[in-house]
Amino acid sequence: MTTGRIIVLFVLAAIAEIGGAWLIWQAVRENRGWLFALLGIVALGAYGFIAALQPDANFGRVLAAYGGVFVAGSLAWGIVVDKFQPTLWDYVGSAVALLGAAIIIFAPVVTTSSE
């Protein structure tokens, strides 16, 4: 259940952060209006709360692992929403980023004993 929770929270965080950034981009770069910017700000705030729900208590680890999800999620957003055509290197980079994220967040916890 924990693995599923981690993945769901990362996906929700990516949707909130990437969607929020996209909304602000639309407001500023595409002149879509202040409502887009306001909705973007709300979505970015939601991202912060969603990230804080991760079961790992280490902020740096959670955000480092999320970085890989953000890379892949941003390209996926571009493909679906903006009809972006990624290159082979975009896919390879995303795979490497996701592998790095998995290594960070799913690595076994190692404890040291003082003898």
What does this structure look like?
With 115 residues, the chain is mainly alpha-helical. The chain has one domain. Helix content is 77%, strand content 0%. The chain contains 4 helices and no strands. It has helices at 2-29, 34-52, 59-81, 88-106. Helix 1 (2-29) packs antiparallel against helix 2, helix 1 crosses helix 3 (59-81) and helix 3 (59-81) packs antiparallel against helix 4 (88-106). The relative contact order is 0.14.
What topology emerges from the helices and strands here?
Blueprint: H1 2-29, H2 34-52, H3 59-81, H4 88-106
Helix pairs in contact: 1-2, 1-3, 3-4
Membrane topology: Multi-pass membrane protein
InterPro entries: EmrE-like, UPF0060
GO cellular component, one term: plasma membrane
Name its key features.
transmembrane helix, 115 residues, cell membrane, globular, Small multidrug resistance family-3 protein, EmrE-like, 77% helix, UPF0060, 4 helices, mainly alpha, single chain
Our measurement of the CA-to-CA distance between the termini, rounded to an integer number of angstroms, reads 35 Å
Name the helicity range.
over 70%
Radius of gyration: 16 Å
Q: State the shape.
A: globular
Largest sheet at a glance? none
β-sheet strand percentage = under 5%
**Number of discrete domains:** 1
* Helix/strand order: HHHH
Structural class given helices, strands, pairing? mainly alpha
Please count the beta strands (DSSP E, at least 2 residues each).
Answer: 0
Q: Quickly count the helices.
A: 4
Low-confidence stretches: none
Overall average residue pLDDT: 94
Membrane topology: Multi-pass membrane protein
Subcellular location: Cell membrane
Protein name: Small multidrug resistance family-3 protein
Family: Belongs to the UPF0060 family.
